[in-house]
Amino acid sequence: MGILGKFTTKLAHSTMKRTLALLCALFLGSQLFAQSYSYSFEGNLTSDQLIELESECKRIPHLEACKVKYKPESNRGELIFRTDSREDRSEKSESFTPIDVKSLLLNNGLTPLDFAPLND
């Protein structure tokens, strides 16, 4: 292998390393700001009310996903949601607050129980 071949091989490895490092940084950077949470509740809900609760949850600012888990036999459930990872992080920006989710539960006649961050 000549000098040109060695140079090309080193350049290709260097480019691959930089590309991999950039991809890792982009992936980890987006994951650092997004966080999943759970808010448990109790109360009686019909299947239509469950669908509406999930729909209302998805309209809360700064949430990118929301899912309702509910056990009708115990009248207990939980909202599992994820904050928006693209959220503006300036000092003046509004950010996610669990008070919005608690208000949603109360407005639907449910009793909020435990709010907790989840490990992704």
Q: What is the CATH C level class of the largest domain, in words?
A: Alpha Beta
Query: Which CATH architecture of the largest domain would you pick?
Result: 2-Layer Sandwich
Weakly predicted, low-confidence segments? 22-31
Instruction: Name the overall outline.
Output: elongated
Q: State which percent range the strand residues make up.
A: 25-35%
Query: Structural class, from secondary structure content?
Result: alpha+beta
Helix content bin: 40-55%
Give the overall pLDDT as a whole number: 80
Number of helices: 3
And the CATH topology of the largest domain?
A: Alpha-Beta Plaits
Number of domains: 2
Describe, in plain words, how this protein is organized in 3D.
The chain is an alpha+beta fold and about 120 residues long. The protein folds into 2 domains: about 1-35; about 35-120, Alpha-Beta Plaits, CATH 3.30.70. Helices cover about 45% and strands about 25% of the residues. It has 3 helices and 4 strands; from the N terminus they run αβαββαβ. It has helices at about 5-35, 45-60, 100-105; strands at about 35-40, 65-70, 75-85, 110-120. A 4-stranded antiparallel sheet has the order 2-3-1-4, with helices on one face. A hairpin with a 4-residue loop joins strand 2 and strand 3 (about 75-85). The chain is elongated. The N and C termini lie far apart (about 50 Å). Residues about 20-30 have low confidence and may be disordered.
